[in-house]
């Protein structure tokens, strides 16, 4: 493996398990992530959880401005020092779930769209995904490292055993592409599971077609709450026979057989 010291400076703080700290330490995968992001002049990159700078510093070498959001105060000073010779790093010390991406995108007269990047803390990866979805209108794309099992669920299609609520909720709003797998040995300390990098590109809001986001989320949740049952039973108190008919969805189907567009039709029919 290509061991990689991100800055050449001393980053000696021990990893904090409660913050999901597994630092990338393999140059091959770091380079692959930077290539996948492929920053272009004028892009407004925002990295979630820069940690010790494994992705941050190579990104800064290619792109002179970067904003990062890091919860761990102990990492701020060394990150600032390591980034100083490379470019303009803006550090927001905060829980990412409290950061308003829309306000961030609109700050300083920006074009209004940001690109999100991050080797995410796995313990809160789903809340981060849904938080980003809430701000999808200002997000051009996202490149995230997550547990491979989660990426498999995000990208799964109907008929797959792992097609579920996360697949439908994300695919309704984004194009989801699983890019590559990263083994535990690429991290310090190694996680127990394989990881994968995924690209999400939010769809143009005018093409999403969901009339009421809360109703859509309710229908999807109920449908997969009892995935072995027919939709007629799983959605017993949620969707009526008339609404099934209006949506053109068979009530004897099961949730895992439906296309994302059929969930949209069911929610819109109500
Ligand atoms: N990007 C670095 C890398 O690839 O080596 C670190 C990735 S590590 C898996 C996740 C990072 O997210 C850590 O630096 C951790 O401190 C940070 N983090 C954890 N919870 C956070 C939160 N709620 N908000 C912002 N950052 C958080």
TrEMBL record:
Binding-site list for S-adenosyl-L-methionine: 22, 24, 49, 70, 95, 119
Q: Name one Pfam family in it.
A: RrnaAD
Q: Which GO terms describe its cellular component?
A: cytosol
- This entry's Enzyme Commission designation comes to 2.1.1.182
Q: What is its main location?
A: cytoplasm
Q: Where in the cell is it found?
A: Cytoplasm
User: What GO annotations for molecular function exist for this entry?
Assistant: 16S rRNA (adenine(1518)-N(6)/adenine(1519)-N(6))-dimethyltransferase activity; RNA binding
Protein known as: Ribosomal RNA small subunit methyltransferase A
Annotated organism of origin: Stenotrophomonas chelatiphaga
């Amino acid at each position: 493996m290509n061991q990689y010291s991100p800055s050449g400076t001393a980053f000696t703080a021990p990893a904090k398990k409660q913050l999901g700290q597994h630092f990338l330490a393999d140059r091959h995968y770091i380079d692959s992530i930077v290539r996948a992001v492929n920053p272009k002049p004028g892009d407004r990159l925002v990295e979630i959880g820069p940690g010790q700078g494994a992705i941050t510093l190579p990104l800064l070498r290619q792109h002179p401005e970067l904003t990062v959001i890091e919860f761990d105060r102990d990492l701020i000073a060394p990150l600032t020092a390591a980034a100083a010779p490379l470019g303009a790093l803006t550090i927001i010390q905060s829980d990412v779930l409290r950061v308003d991406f829309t306000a961030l995108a609109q700050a300083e007269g920006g074009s209004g769209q940001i690109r999100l990047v991050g080797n995410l803390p796995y313990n809160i990866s789903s809340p981060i995904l849904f938080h980003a979805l809430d701000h999808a209108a200002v997000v051009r794309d996202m490149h995230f490292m997550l547990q491979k099992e989660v990426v498999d669920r995000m990208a799964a299609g109907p008929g797959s055993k792992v097609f579920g609520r996360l697949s439908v909720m994300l695919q309704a709003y984004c194009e989801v592409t699983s890019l590559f797998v990263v083994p535990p040995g690429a991290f310090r300390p190694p996680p127990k599971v394989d990881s994968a990098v995924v690209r999400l590109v939010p769809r143009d809001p005018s093409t999403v077609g969901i009339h009421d986001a809360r109703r859509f989320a309710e229908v999807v949740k109920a449908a997969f709450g009892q995935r072995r049952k027919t939709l007629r039973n799983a959605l017993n108190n949620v969707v009526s026979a008339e609404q099934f008919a209006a949506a053109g969805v068979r009530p004897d189907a099961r949730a895992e057989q439906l296309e994302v567009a059929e969930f949209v039709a069911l929610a819109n029919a109500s």
